[in-house]
Amino acid sequence: MLLVLLGNGFSRFYERRQVSDVTEAMKGIGQQYGLDLKQNIEPGLPAYISQFESSYFAKVAVLTIEDGIANQLLTGGGTENSQLVLQLQAPSNSDFIVTPKPSVESEVSGLMAALQEWLGDENSFQQVMEQGQTLTYKSEAASSAAGTAVSPLIAITAASTDGSQSGTILLAVSSLQPITHAASVFRGLSLYVFGAALVFVLLLAFGYAQMIANPLIRLNAFAGRLANLEFDKRIGWKRKDEIGELARTFDFLTDNLQQTLEQLQTANEKLRQDIEREKQLERMRRQFVAGVSHELKTPLSLIGGYAEGLKDNIGKGAKREKYAEVILEETGRMAAIVADMLNLSHLESGQYALKWETFDVAELLNAAADRADGLRAGKAGLHVKVNVTPAPNGETAAVADRFRIDQVLTNLVSNAVRHTPDGGIIELSASAGEKEWTVTVYNEGDSIPEEELTRIWGEFYRIDKARSRESGGTGIGLAIVREIMELHGSRCEVRNERGGVAFRFKLRLAGS
């Protein structure tokens, strides 16, 4: 229906355009032909009238009128084709006789019908002959006379006139059949065009839907991967439309989510480590409290018991002195524990500053061996050896905090004396390399269980879980050794060797 309306509208528009164009063109050739008449050119129709006929599908004739009576009619564009085809005689404008030549009757039938219509309209006749106007209109009479269903255009203009009822008139009949036929064909094809357009629109809609839906389906699948925290792929589209912008936003979101998740995992791992560290510290604190309580419980009990005996005047002479000696011994033991605890706390605080100095390693080991001799009371046949291997250049000095390194050796030697059996050997050795000393404290005796090697450095940790007084030690000495070596940027290692245990640490060689 829409195509039919478009066809009708197109037909009407073309008719109005044709009327306007024919009017202007007719007026132009009328003026030109009037000039030709004034210049007395040869009779006949000039070539520009043929051009008009070709351009507007028209038939043009020249009509001579005298005193309101049509006299003759000339047709045929071009001088060589021009011919007088009709001789008209009429008693009046409304009633006249037409005597066309038989050979051209079919050609001029439309012209004659148009001529009759114009001559029969007194108003139109006066507009052309007296007023010099150019008239263009559709003719129903010409259409009936020609036997066609299409109303032609009639165009009439005066080439010359005396202002009354005599002059030369140009008469043109222009067919609208081409455009009318095109419009009818257009209306006839409207259903086919509509069907084709419908199929095209459906195909276009399907293609466009696929063009939009497929990327959205892929984006939805990608969003599902994001929901499952899968960040191994990116869309990577280079489209410049809204879908491409959405894809780039997804990629940006993926990068941010991956980065955020990695940061969160790192933070969680750090938090887990912190929690584990706190748990470990809590266990160490409990062990420390238990160790301190156990270490102080026995001395306090002994001191309390013997002090009560002295208060009650139990015993006399040597017995009272024995009580006093026990009290003094246990008091010294508690003082040593407290001193070690304060020392360890001071080292662990991180506020202790080492006093770096150069000292002789052999002298340090010999002093430690002398202390071992003083500590081996009750150990029958205990032997202490010292072995120092200087550097290739003969250097025997090291650089460290001598007081703290001496404290390390004292703790290691004391530990060795306690765990060396009667007749056993303790060996203190130092070997110089290119840049550092390796100091070793070895003692014969039972090896340390492998699972305990990493635990002996803890505060109040003792392999003897019963913590008997006979095995000695408070369990703080090795913890102090650990802290001192860490302050020196080194560490003390322990290893079970054949027939005994060896503790080993390193010192910087003087001059390296």
Structural class: alpha+beta
Radius of gyration: 66 Å
Low-confidence stretches: 89-104, 144-148
H/E order of the elements?
HHEEEEHHEHEEHHHHEHEEHEEHEE
How much of the sequence lies in strands comes to 15-25%
Number of strands: 14
How can the largest sheet be summarized? 7 strands, antiparallel
Distance between the termini: 106 Å
The strand order across the widest sheet is 4-3-2-1-7-6-5
Mean pLDDT: 76
Q: What oligomeric state best describes the polypeptide chains here?
A: single chain
Tally of alpha and pi helices = 12
Number of discrete domains: 3
| Helix residue percentage | 40-55%
Task: Based on Cα principal axes, name the global outline.
Answer: rod-shaped
Write the layout of secondary structure elements.
Layout: H1 2-38, H2 47-55, E1 58-66, E2 69-75, E3 83-89, E4 97-100, H3 105-119, H4 122-129, E5 135-138, H5 140-146, E6 153-161, E7 167-174, H6 177-188, H7 190-227, H8 242-311, H9 318-348, E8 357-360, H10 361-375, E9 383-389, E10 397-400, H11 402-419, E11 425-432, E12 436-444, H12 477-487, E13 493-497, E14 500-509
Parallel strand pairs: 9-11
Antiparallel strand pairs: 1-2, 1-7, 2-3, 3-4, 5-6, 6-7, 8-10, 10-14, 11-12, 12-14, 13-14
Helix pairs in contact: 1-6, 3-5, 7-8, 8-9, 9-12, 10-11, 11-12
Task: Give a short overview.
With 512 residues, the protein is an alpha+beta fold. It is 53% helix and 19% strand.
